């Protein structure tokens, strides 16, 4: 009789989705992304040469072309958006920016231990792209000597 009683009491099927495991996975992913986002390196380590030149103050973020010790180019159109580019894409992107803004000023940040030829090549690329105002970036001297 107990076998028949069990057969008669069938479990009713639920037509609901259990979303608790999905919420748990999403919370774990959210925590992982929140912890790892500040650890991402968005910049290029460049040891700028030092000088006692005055700082330039501008209202908007400048366009910066960084050249590392090995001669690789990086383009920063906005603060924090540093992307590696080759010579052709650097020239194309800067040419498009200069076409929209003829008074565009581009700053070159090169590694102080790198070759001077890399800086000159970057300046020639910028000149070929139509940029008329090119500046060089440096760090203030710590010892105060000129």
UniProtKB/TrEMBL annotation:
Coiled coil: none annotated. Pfam families: ExbD. InterPro entries: ExbD, Tol-Pal_TolR. Its main location: membrane. It comes from the Bacteria. The chain crosses the membrane at residues 21-40. It is found in: Cell inner membrane; Cell membrane. It is a single-pass membrane protein. Part of the Tol-Pal system, which plays a role in outer membrane invagination during cell division and is important for maintaining outer membrane integrity. The Tol-Pal system is composed of five core proteins: the inner membrane proteins TolA, TolQ and TolR, the periplasmic protein TolB and the outer membrane protein Pal. They form a network linking the inner and outer membranes and the peptidoglycan layer. HAMAP family: TolR. This is Tol-Pal system protein TolR. The lineage of its organism: Bacteria, Pseudomonadati, Pseudomonadota, Gammaproteobacteria, Lysobacterales.
């Amino acid at each position: 009789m107990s076998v028949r009683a069990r057969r008669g009491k069938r479990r009713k099927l639920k037509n609901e989705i259990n979303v608790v495991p999905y919420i748990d996975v999403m919370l774990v992913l959210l925590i992982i992304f929140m912890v790892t986002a500040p650890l991402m390196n968005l910049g290029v380590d460049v040891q700028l040469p030092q000088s006692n030149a005055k700082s330039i103050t501008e209202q908007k973020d400048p366009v910066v072309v960084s050249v590392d010790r090995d001669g690789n180019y990086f383009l920063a159109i906005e603060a924090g958006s540093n992307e590696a580019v080759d010579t052709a894409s650097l020239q194309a992107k800067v040419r498009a920016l200069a076409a929209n803004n003829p008074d565009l000023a581009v700053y070159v940040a090169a590694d102080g231990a790198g070759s001077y030829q890399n800086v000159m090549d970057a300046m020639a690329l910028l000149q070929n792209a139509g940029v008329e105002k090119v500046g060089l970036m440096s760090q203030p001297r710590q010892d105060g000597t000129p």
